[in-house]
Design goal:
With about 300 residues, the chain is mainly alpha-helical. Among the domains are: about 80 residues; about 60 residues; about 70 residues, Roll (Membrane-bound Lytic Murein Transglycosylase D, Chain A). It has eight helices and two strands, in the order H-H-H-H-H-E-H-H-E-H. Strands 1-2 form a two-stranded antiparallel sheet. Helix 1 runs antiparallel to helix 2. About 10% of the residues are buried.
Length: about 300
């Protein structure tokens, strides 16, 4: 509307300026116009003015029609909006209140703030309202429900009694515990300085994660996101350290094996030497005996010859 008025104003201004310029030209020594020429020019300007006035009137009529049409459309839009909100049993202000609540619950669930049980109660209010079916909310509502279902339950701290054949790795992997073998560091840290209970003469602490004993009642902390991240890092670090230690131990074992082999070889050599010595000794003894026997046999013969 403003543009139309501005256009008309410019046309009127140009017409006025044209008249003034013509008059100024006459005053500045331009050849004088005859009455007929002057009348002709005035008729032309008058015709232009009438044309512009008609256009202005038409523009005003168009603007009025446009305003009426816009008002009708605005009214139809408001009616459609009211009908839409009424279809879910609410009003515009009611939907505005629901929007604030919806956004708060959406943030809580997506970021997993607080306890899941509180989020479930908040979500129940959203789910109970028909307003969630509006196009503005429905897709987001479905995503929020999926996120809530995926929110892992936080278990309360409980206890577990160790049985024969158990290890922290196996215990953490049990469905009723963490259902994740990598969470064994959580159990170790919780019980390193003291278990819940233990039979007489059984360790009350777990200094070494590889040494747990039947009858020990272990603390099983609730698994939070923070504990989960720490446990994964610690399990990875411990595995790397253990591999390094195992490789070192294997080298030591190999060295010991080689040393034992060398000792056995030396022992065998010594035994062979001793055996050879003993054989030589026996041979010499036998030779001496044989010589003595021969000497004794020859002595009687010599005596007989002398006689």
């Amino acid at each position: 509307m403003k543009f139309h008025k501005l256009l008309v104003a410019l046309l009127v201004l140009s017409l006025t300026l044209g008249v003034k310029i013509a008059a100024f030209a006459q005053d500045e020594g331009a050849p004088e116009m005859t009455e007929e020429e002057w009348q002709k020019q005035m008729d032309e300007y008058t015709a232009k003015k009438t044309e512009l006035t008609g256009k202005l009137a038409q523009l005003d009529a168009d603007i009025t029609a446009a305003k009426t049409k816009n008002a009708e459309k605005d009214a139809a839009l408001v009616k459609a909006e009211e009908d839409l909100y009424a279809s879910v049993g609410s009003t515009k202000s009611g939907v505005a209140d629901f929007r604030k609540k919806f956004e708060a619950v959406e943030k809580t669930i997506n970021k997993k703030e607080g306890k899941k049980e509180d989020a479930v109660k908040m979500f129940a209010e959203i789910e109970a309202s028909k307003i969630k079916c509006l196009p503005e909310f429905f897709d987001r509502y479905k995503k929020m429900k999926a996120a809530l279902d995926a929110w892992s339950e936080v278990k309360k701290e409980s206890g577990y009694t160790v049985v024969k054949g158990d290890c922290l790795y196996k215990i953490a992997g049990k469905k009723e515990i963490y259902n994740n073998v990598k969470m064994w560091p959580v159990l170790w840290e919780a019980n390193e300085k003291g278990v819940v209970n233990a039979p007489p003469k059984v360790a009350k602490t777990i200094k070494n994660p590889n040494l747990i004993y039947p009858g020990q009642v272990l603390k099983v902390p609730a698994l939070t996101e923070d504990l989960k991240k720490k446990a994964e890092l610690k399990a990875k670090k411990y595995r790397y350290t253990r591999k390094k230690k195992v490789s070192t131990d294997e080298v030591k074992k190999d060295v010991k094996k080689d040393e034992k082999k060398d000792v056995k070889k030396d022992e065998k050599k010594d035994v062979k030497k001793d055996e050879k010595k003993d054989v030589k000794k026996d041979v010499k003894k036998d030779e001496k005996k044989d010589v003595k026997k021969d000497v004794k046999k020859e002595e009687p013969k010599k005596e007989e010859k002398k006689k």
